[in-house]
Each structure stands twice: as C-alpha cells, then as structure tokens.
Amino acid sequence: MAMQTTGSNAEGEPMMDINTTPLIDVMLVLLIMFIITIPPQTHAVKLDLPQDSSNNPPPPIDPVKNKIVITQAGTVLWNGAPVNLTQLRQFLDVTQQMDPVPELHLQPEPEARYELVDEVLAVTKQAKVSKMGFVGNEAYMTVF
Q1: Whole-number mean pLDDT of the chain?
Q2: In sequence order, which residues have a C-beta less than 8 Å from that of residue 64 and are 6 or more positions away?
Q3: Helices (H) and strands (E) in the chain — how many of each?
Q4: Closest CA to 61 of 93, 13, 95, 10
Q5: Which runs of consecutive H residues, i.e. helices, occur in the chain?
Q6: Phi-psi label, residue 94: left if phi above 0, alpha if psi -120 to 50, beta otherwise
Q7: Residue 1 — very low, low, confident or very high, per pLDDT cuts 50/70/90?
C-alpha cells in the first residue's frame, strides 16, 4: 500500500512560489543605509560670518619688548590690544625677523583657562620665539 500525500507538490513538481523574504531583508537594509547617508550630503548650514568693519591699525610692535596678556575672560592681548591667535602668529613672525630680536613677556592671569595659555604657547613655539619669559609668577603663589 502506497501512501498518498496531500498537497500540490505530491508528484515531485517544483514549487512555483518564490521566497521573497531574503529579498525584502536586503531591500530594507539598503533603504536604511540610504536614509542614513543621504541627508548629510544634501543639507547645508548657512553661516553669516562677521566682517572686520573696523579699520583700526594693528597694535604696534615694540623693538625692545612685547607683552602678551591672557585674561580670565579668554582674550589674548598683544601690548594691550586684543588679538586672535592668527594675528598673534603674524606679530611673532615679524618680531623674529627684527634685529635684535625683541623680548616676549607672557603674563597669563591667575584665573585664565590653561587651554588658552597652552594654545598661545603652541603659537610661540611654531613661530620659533627665542627670547621669552613669564611675567607675574608670584600671582600664583596664593592659588594653591
């Protein structure tokens, strides 16, 4: 006695249905990848950068000694005038070209951020400043 199986595939015919689950999984992964990667390419951030509207002359460079003060508020002063690190580098490059090379006095305030002091020291190192000294170290005696 032979047993007879019920169903459409009883005679050994191939299945006519396609398994679409792996195809759908791959398509969902690709869709997620496109959703993640496309927005950074199409979005732009518009910035209105400040323009230097003041025609103030740059602070003078003293042929004998120049002083850099780093304030508690986070500003860098070159001989009393505020400068950014790019301008500071330009002034330091000019002083290194002078003959004789003027002294550079660095005076950070006791409450100044160390990160800014470190950035100023890095700029002076890049400019290859040879005559530099720290001023006002006695202000740190009461900090600790």
Answers
A1: 82
A2: 102, 103
A3: 3, 5
A4: 95
A5: 21-42, 85-97, 114-126
A6: alpha
A7: very low
Q: Whole-model pTM?
A: 0.56
The secondary structure of residue 136, as a DSSP letter, is -
Per-residue CA distances from 6 to 3, 9, 22, 34 (Å): 10, 8, 28, 46
> Smallest Cα–Cα separation from 70: which of 49, 85, 50, 92?
85
Q: Which residues contact 74 (CB under 8 A, 6 or more apart)?
A: 112, 113, 116
Question: Is the predicted pLDDT of residue 39 greater than 50, yes or no?
Answer: yes
Give per-residue pLDDT as tens, 53-99. 666 666 677 788 899 999 999 999 998 889 999 999 999 998 888 88
Query: Interior CA angle at 62 toward 53 and 65, to 5°?
Result: 130
Q: Per the structure block, which two tokens stand in for 96?
A: 């290194």
Burial class (CB in 10 A: 0-12, 13-18, 19+), 133: exposed
Report the C-alpha gap between 117 and 108 in whole angstroms.
Answer: 7
